[in-house]
Amino acid sequence: MRIIGTNFMGHDSALFFIDTQKREIFAMSTERVTRIKHDSKDVSLILEKYRFENVDYVCQGYGNFEEKVRSDLGAEKVAALIQKKAYCDLIQPKYIADLFPDAKTKYLAYLNAFIKHPMKTLKDLDRIKPDFKERFVEEHRGKSDREIVEGYMREVFESHGVSPKAIEFYDHHLSHAAGAYFFSPFAYAKRCISLTLDGWGDGYFGKAFIFDGNTYELIARSPIREVDHEGIDINPTHDLTSIGILYGNFTEALGLRRYSDEGKVEALAAFGKRDEKMYREMMDATIISADGMDYDPAAIKPYYDRKFLAAKVEEVGKENFSATIQSYLEDAVVEYLRLLGERYEDIDTLCLSGGVAANIIMNLNIYERTKFKKLYIFPPMGDEGVAVGAALLKALEIGEDISWVNEYYMPYFGNRLTKEEIEKSIELFSDRVETKYIGDEWYLEAAQSVAEKRIVAVVHGRMEFGPRALGNRSILANPTDPQIKDRINLTVKRRPKYQPFCPSILEEERERLFESSFPHKHMAIGFRVKKEYHDKIPSAIHVDGTARPQFVEEADNPNYYKLLKRVKELTGFGVVINTSFNLHGRTIVHTAEDALLDFIDCNIDELYIEGYRVKRR
Q: For the Carbamoyltransferase C-terminal domain, which residue ranges apply (predicted)?
């Protein structure tokens, strides 16, 4: 059976393909193709680039069209998507900053589009008019939200050669939870709680399920509620009570991007101390039980007021402001899991998914402060992950065997670069780079360069699915160099210097370096580094004494494992800094041309791309 699961449109749109007979998987996020971070356009550009034949079903990881506070999917959402696609067709953004051009640049883009494609440009211009949404809704009056969404999805898929028997819709949080459970090491082994937490989806910001083999049971729900707008400055699109939205409110108050820069708040929190008054007010407004999390909308209302939060930033400082929301998140979730653990005392395994599960220090608190020591965080924890769960739920529903999927425990589900593509891109930039093919043992030379404190980018094998680079699209550096972290932040990634870097570490080094840990492979949880190593690998350790590791064994990624083994021979530590191969504001490189362009545009010393070594001329 050939099934496509999708987060068709909206934040982190993505596609997941599974062939249950051939036991094959492919997955791609829209952002990797467009290079617009967290792109909300639909998956048509993925369908343009990759062909999917004889697909039986398409499954969407949103699907509750009845029980909801406001429409996640419907006529207005489709109209907004059509408008965004028309706007992007006209201005042709390369990166997220290009989505907001000045008036002159926008006018020239429109003129250029008209010269190239006059009829299409006129159609696109009509679609970006302010009244388009109203006209679209009126045109589809009388149709249900499901009919409108399904009709548009079918139109897009069929225009790219995909004609499924049916388009199915699955609950958002069940899709998150199913993907996490079936890819976890606990699948089919024992009963497991799969917990989701995010901004919102299908009327809730979180749910908890018990999975036991192919069966599951909903055990807790965390509903969203609307916050009263009267008397406060509130963003009407983010006025729902939710632990994810609340964290996003603090993110925006710091001048950062919601749904993108929450990791910066988490990093900055380590430099501050929580404000007790704010912390207590938020905790008092939160209703926590084993049945779920909830909020008193009136009590939490001040923390949706942009003027109030801006004043608090000024009053307590950015570091303490960040520490307050981080401490609240950790304590609220730990208390929720404590109560769940008491109710289901026979279950000690936990899967986490949803955007909130990207919070590495929250996950460490769960590991240290709850009974759930057998912990798995789904690598594509954001909304790209619902594409996975929706496909697996359909396969389960029609009796397909999916017991094998967790053999793909490393999420290398994306594209692999071809020799032809690489050589074509090298030729394109031949006036700026010099290249040598060094063959299958490229990792030996890359390891030597890392040991000698050069910054190295590597591209090999299949691209990772999810936000973390796990050695196949990575920038690597030597953590024993105390200056290298600032150098990468300021001259390569061009991001705030307080942000930490995750290390890749040989599994055999884990117990030597960390106080308490488990063989985690996906950089989704922090562990505390033993104090005697703080000055030995300083650039891999955050100010709070934690590192966010990927523990590597040979079966995970043979070439990357060999690189780490060689680094250990040369430096005494099987550890490298590993950050995603992209510049700040761009997404992880997708094509060979992306890789060459990002290499040229920053201060990476060398690029190793499928056996080719690339340096600047």
A: 447-615
CA-based nearest residue to 304, from 243, 383, 222:
243
Domains present along the chain, CATH in parentheses: 2-172 (no CATH), 188-377 (3.30.420.40), 419-616 (3.90.870.20)
| CA angle, residues 511, 340, 285, in degrees to nearest 5 | 105
- Backbone φ, ψ for residue 132 (5° rounding): -60, -40
Nearest alpha carbon to residue 385 among 602, 116, 177, 101: 177
Residue 484 has pLDDT above 80, yes or no: yes
Question: Which pLDDT belongs to residue 69?
Answer: 62
Record the tokens describing residue 207, joined without a space. 């749910």
Percent above pLDDT 90 for the chain? 84
In angstroms, rounded to a whole number, what is the distance separating the alpha carbons of residues 176 and 180? 6
Q: 27-41, 105-119, 349-363, 602-616: lowest mean pLDDT where?
A: 105-119
Is residue 92 packed enough to be buried (19+ CB in 10 Å), middle (13-18) or exposed (0-12)?
exposed
Q: What pLDDT is stored for residue 91 in this prediction?
A: 87
Looking at residue 175, its pLDDT comes to 98
Please, what is the average pLDDT of the chain?
A: 95
Strand order in the sheet with 433-437: 433-437, 612-616, 606-609, 456-459, 473-477, 575-580, 503-506, 550-552
Q: Which letter does DSSP use for residue 488 in this model? A: I
- Select from 251, 235, 242 the least CA-distant residue to 200: 242
Angle 63-467-170 from CA coordinates, rounded to 5°: 10
Q: Which two tokens stand for residue 155?
A: 């139109």
- CB contact at 8 A, 208 and 195: yes
Q: Does residue 569 surpass a pLDDT of 90?
A: yes
- DSSP at 240: B
Q: Which residues have CB under 8 Å from 36's CB, separation 6+?
A: 93, 95, 96, 99, 587
> Bridge partners of 352?
195, 377
Full-model pTM:
0.95
Decide: helix, strand or coil at residue 293: strand
Is residue 74 predicted with pLDDT exceeding 70?
yes
- Does residue 206 sit in helix, strand or coil? strand
SS3 call for 115: helix
Predicted local distance difference test score (pLDDT) of residue 68: 60
Residue 21 CB-density burial (10 A; 0-12 exposed, 13-18 middle, 19+ buried)? exposed
Residue 456: what pLDDT?
97
Q: Helices 360-369 and 262-269 sit at what angle, rounded to 10 degrees?
A: 60
CA 296 to chain CA centroid, Å, is 29
C-alpha distances (whole Å) from 435 to each of 245, 384, 414, 429, 492 are: 47, 35, 25, 10, 21
Query: CB of 467 within 8 A of CB of 354?
Result: no
Using DSSP's 3-state secondary structure scheme, residue 602 falls into coil
Q: Could you tell me where the beta strands, DSSP code E, fall in 344-470?
A: 349-353, 374-377, 433-437, 456-459
pLDDT score, position 404? 97
